[in-house]
């Protein structure tokens, strides 16, 4: 009887979490307040809020996204470990920055295509009024960047189908890269140093219980770009 009661309790707990979703207004309130009080004393006094309303639900989301992402590509990695996993630390590296604010005022997670190699990946960004989902390669290393450019030249029809609506690239070259035809019809893309696309998400979407489905739809929308980039750099899609 005890075992039966425990199984019933677990089922109701799973159902409750499914109905609640991952993030709520407290998640966004904490991040707004952190933006106004970005100092160690305030964060220490409110660390429990961070753990309960930001970190724990974010890690739970990452864990739930693992099986969903494998529907897009079996090689995508969703790592729910609190340290060294998909979730980025909230602590800023201020060693070489003029801005000495100790904490990020957003939360992010990356979902790479495999580990330990230059390959495209997905990214989820949670910030009040600035949430979005993105995919691709941001500032790839020179060898990978060269391979992407070469494949664009080799397979322009495939690139046209895959590129979709790319994000603006403020770091793009002013001229065609060395060794590439400045008159090439794809020259503007050849000048790029980043190949990313993003899908804006509302705060309301981030609070919904079906957030994993929204995540997967966004991932599928950007998957042609991801597949082209993966093939360019020799990564398995």
Name the features:
four-stranded antiparallel beta sheet, 48% helix, alpha+beta, globular, 237 residues, BirA Bifunctional Protein, domain 2, 4 strands, 10% strand
How does this model look, in words?
It is a single chain. The chain has 237 residues and is α+β, with helices and mostly antiparallel strands. It has one domain (2-233): BirA Bifunctional Protein, domain 2 (2-Layer Sandwich), CATH 3.30.930. It has helices at 2-20, 25-36, 40-45, 47-69, 142-154, 156-163, 187-190, 203-207, 211-233, and strands spanning 107-112, 121-126, 132-137, 195-200. Strands 1-2-3-4 form a four-stranded antiparallel beta sheet, covered by helices on one side. β1 and β2 form a beta hairpin. α4 (47-69) packs across α9 (211-233) and α6 packs antiparallel against α9 (211-233). The longest helix is centred in the N-terminal third of the chain and has 23 residues, at 47-69. The relative contact order is 0.15.
CATH topology: BirA Bifunctional Protein, domain 2
| SSE order, one letter for each helix or strand | HHHHEEEHHHEHH
**CATH class division:** Alpha Beta
The total count of strands amounts to 4
Q: How many domains, in number, for the residues?
A: 1
Which architecture per CATH? Answer: 2-Layer Sandwich
The computed structural class is alpha+beta
Number of helices: 9
For the termini, the CA-CA separation is 48 Å
Strand order of the largest sheet: 1-2-3-4
- Specify the helix fraction band: 40-55%
Largest sheet: 4 strands, antiparallel
- Stretches with pLDDT under 50, minimum 5 residues: none
